[in-house]
Amino acid sequence: MARQSFSVNEKNDQWLPEQVTINEYSSKSELVNDLIRQARSQQKEIDWIRAKLDRAERRGFSSRTPEEILAVAKSEA
User: Fold this and answer.
1) What per-residue confidence (pLDDT) applies to 1?
2) DSSP 2
3) Rg for the chain (alpha carbons), in Å?
4) CB half-sphere exposure, 16, CA atoms < 13 A
């Protein structure tokens, strides 16, 4: 596993050990890795939404109702 060194501000320095205890992480490293995994997952969702919006903008206006558009979007997921 790659080793990293980084600095955090005072509030985050206090928050990290609290979260380790509350969420039963074995270490601050495990917590930070979990936070990074969550951020990566969120980024995938953001990229998916952005791609959908880009594609929709290229298609132009629609005569479909919002419900119809939502149904199509869900079926393409």
Assistant:
1) 84
2) -
3) 20
4) 17
